[in-house]
Each structure stands twice: as C-alpha cells, then as structure tokens.
Amino acid sequence: MKKQTEQMPEDPKFHDTWLLLRKYRDVVWGLELSVQQVKRRFQMEIGSSIEDFLDSLYIAGVDFSDNGIQEQARSIEKSYQMLKLLETSVNIMRNKHKKGEMYYWLLYYSYLSPQEYRSVDEIIEMVRPHISDISQRTFFRRRKNAIEALSSILWGYTSKDSLSLLEQFFPDN
Fold first, then answer.
1. 87: closest CA among 29, 157, 28, 172?
2. Closest Cα to residue 73, out of 96, 95, 54?
3. pLDDT tens, residue by residue, 48-81
4. Residue 70 in contact with residue 78, Cβ under 8 Å?
5. 27-40 pLDDT, tens per residue?
6. CB 100 within 8 A of CB 137
C-alpha cells in the first residue's frame, strides 16, 4: 500500500490553522512550564505565592515596579488567550457545524489530545469508535475539511485581517 503524505492547500487561512494545530501540544506544554517557572521565581523573589501577593496588593492599592516577572506573565497571558481562542473555536465547530462531532474527533486525535500518536493508522484506530468505515484516504480528506471549517471560525475573513482584529482585543500594552 502506498503511504499517503500530508499535502497542504495553498490557502493561507488553512496554513495558519494547520500550523496552529500542529503547535498546539508544544504551546500547552510550554505554557504549563512557564506558569510553573513564574510561580517558582515569584516565590523566590517576593517570598509569597502570586495569589497571596496579588491579594495584598489589591487590598493595599499598591503598584510594584517591573522586575521581569510582569513581561513573562504577559507572554503567558498571550499564549493562554491564543489557546482559549482555539479551544472556543473548536467547541463552536463541534456544537454548531453539521459535521462538527466527526470533525472534532479528527482534530482531537490528530492535534489536540495530550497523547501524540505515532502514525496515521494509530489515529484512525482512535477515531474508529466515533467514525465508522474510515480509510486513510477518507481520513485525510475529512481532516482537511475539518481544518477548513475551523479556519472559517478562527479567521472569518482572512488571516491577516484577523491578526489585526485580535491585536485590538488583546493589545500588547
């Protein structure tokens, strides 16, 4: 049997979504590590947990100077917002699209599950309880359709327009 390779369409929206999905596990992992590092660093430098410190600041109305933790926290927040945007979009697709449930499972086992599977055949085995009679060819076609459906939710217009729109909602400063 000829091994099927993944081919990306030329559409930049598809490419952006595909890249975002491919990076998802790495971003989740990096975000978890960053949060732990910030908490540990904060504990060492300030001498209390972030939560206790922020509670005392809010009560006292105090502002503190930036010592690097604030910039790292901003970076974590931006990554978190990106993950939430993706997760919300996936849930909208799952609940509202006419093939949403099928598309969800294709994307989940391909990109979103904590476990990364070694081969397309492994992914297809995981998908089988949710989608019957799925071949490799059907898998690739339907997964492409799932990514396109998710792209339309994520980007709506064009990816370039959407990035400027996201910047309005989540400015750097």
1. 28
2. 54
3. 766 666 666 556 665 555 556 666 667 777 777 8
4. no
5. 888 877 877 777 77
6. no
Residue 153 CA to residue 118 CA, distance in Å, equals 28
Nearest to residue 75, comparing CAs of 27, 117, 23?
Answer: 27
Contact 47, 75 (CB under 8 A): no
d(CA 85, CA 69) in angstroms, rounded, equals 24
Q: Which residue has the tokens 């790292």?
A: 72
* 18 pLDDT above the threshold of 70: yes
Nearest CA among 6, 21, 1, 14 for reference residue 139: 6
Per-residue model confidence as pLDDT tens digits over 103-162: 999 999 999 999 999 999 999 999 999 998 899 999 999 999 999 999 989 887 444 555
- Match 């993706």 to its residue by tokens: 86
Token duo for residue 58: 């809010």
Structure tokens at 1: 């049997």
Report DSSP state, residue 122.
H
Provide the 8-state DSSP code for 110. I
Phi, psi of 148 (to 5 degrees): -65, -40
For CA atoms 95, 97, 99, 100, give the dihedral sign: negative
Question: How far from the centroid of its chain's Cα atoms is residue 121's Cα?
Answer: 24
Percentage of residues in the chain having pLDDT higher than 90: 35
